[in-house]
Amino acid sequence: LVPIMRSGLGMVEAMLELLPNAVVHHLGMFRTRTGQPIEYYSRLPRDSACDLAFVLEPCIATASTVSAAVLKLKGWGAERIVVLSVLVSRAGLHELQKAHPDITVYSVQVDEDLSDDRCLLPGLGDTGDRQFATPAGTPLS
Fold first, then answer.
1. Which of 12, 34, 96, 111 could disulfide-pair with 63, CB 3.0 to 4.6 Å?
2. How far apart, in whole angstroms, are the C-alpha atoms of residue 139 and residue 141?
């Protein structure tokens, strides 16, 4: 299991109920205001990759962050990658499938639109902020 921090952490417990012997690795990534994905943390073991990686990312808007995570996992040597999401934009899903046609993507819902600042519409808001009770308007650190 590879949650993309912070928001992906909320999916770990449920996945561990389904796959109790799964190992959890962590990737910390965020998207800048310009849409550029930035990796700030990685806990992938250097000495071995996995046969199957489940990327946990609740919301996928443009797919830039999850696509960068998939690229990182491919470089690490993950043989098969499955992305699990709750909500994805149609445009983001298209971009992810175009960039990585060899992965599998499962999502509960597909939103049709993105806002002008590339957020899901209607979306869920910032899922990481919701999970960790970050006050609205807190600047990125």
1. 96
2. 6
DSSP 117: T
List, for residues 26-75, the tens digit of each pLDDT value.
999 987 878 789 999 998 998 887 899 999 999 888 889 999 999 999 99
Alpha-carbon span 124 to 37, nearest angstrom: 20
- For residue 61, the 8-state DSSP code is S
Q: How far is CA 23 from the centre of its chain?
A: 17
Distance (Å, whole) CA 53 – CA 61: 21
Query: What are the tokens at 95?
Result: 């971009």
What residue has token string 């073991």? 45
Which of 94, 103, 29 lies closest to 66 in space, CA to CA?
A: 29
The answer to whether 50 touches 79, Cβ cutoff 8 Å, is yes
**Residue 141 has what pLDDT?**
42
Contact 107, 114 (CB under 8 A): no
Given the structure tokens 């994905």, which residue do they identify? 37
DSSP state for residue 138 in the 8-state scheme: P
* Region of residue 73 (phi > 0: left; psi between -120 and 50: alpha; otherwise: beta): alpha
